[in-house]
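TL;DR need structure tokens for one chain.
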Amino acid sequence: MAPPPLVARSHHGLHVPAANIHLDARSAPGTVFVSHAHSDHCTWAPRIICTRETAALHAKRKRAREAVTLDFHAPFRCGDATIELLPAGHTLGSAMALIRSADGTLVYTGDYKLRDNPFSPPAAIPRCDVLVMECTFGSPLYRFPPDEELLARLFRFIDETLAMGRTPIVLAYSLGKGQEALYHLTRRGYDVLVKEPTAGLCDLHVELGYGFPGPGTWERFESDLLPGRVVLATPGWKKDPAADIPRARTVQLTGWGCNPRARYMYGHCDLVLPISDHADFDDLVRTAVESGASTIYTVHGSPVFAAHLRSMGLNAEHLAAHPNKPEDAGRTSRPVTTPLAAAQYSLELA
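>> reply
TL;DR here they are.
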């Protein structure tokens, strides 16, 4: 009799039979491993396994639930397997799951990056038999410049804007990138006005022991405090009537900034910088190779990346763009079997 698979698809998403847990499922009976607290990875399941920080952030976004909180590198018995959380470098508390059973070793990356994150220990590439990895930026279009270069461009934009007597507005997602941006802005010495919901999540970072270094300061946005300040807001800020800031210049921080069409995708912005909390194409390839996995499943992206891995001689299959959604869990991904098809699909995505 063949051994059970290390990971399988259920109606609820990705399921690990040996541990009897789901991975980042939006809803599932029993226990769900939550890799981080972005809304597309939060769950309504009754019980979660995650880090202490993710549990706190998850409670703020989805209300508190029974949580098994684990430190990094501390194996925990779960069914017929052990689960060990490893730093993922994506957001505060983000974790990969390394699950060992008699049948082998599975790694689920969740969203991750190998570059530095001031709110996470460094992420490393774990060895495993089966790797389930995100591939959000799994196209050669998405090779990010060094963070130091991108931050220098950001600071130059802010300095130029302030010198014009105008208000620089930095657009970043409310959890993760928003706090990374605030960390670098205050460290540089800027005084920052932070809009909601980012401000509330910054408060929670401070409560959890992860502050912002200064010498710059930050406080909640109020329009009468604007002169000489930087504003930090979410990408949807223009939907907020209170965001009517005169003489503003905007910069958006997003990995999609590497796309040649970024200036048209974000036409309301004066600048788009590919500052991202995800692994870029080269780090995704490096992860797949250095993991030593005999089987690789890709999720949270397009089939192009799995096709590229197969062209390198790796055993890779794309599962689904959103395997944690019940409606997508059992869906077969669009096949991409040749370099030409991959190229055509990449152009469709661009």
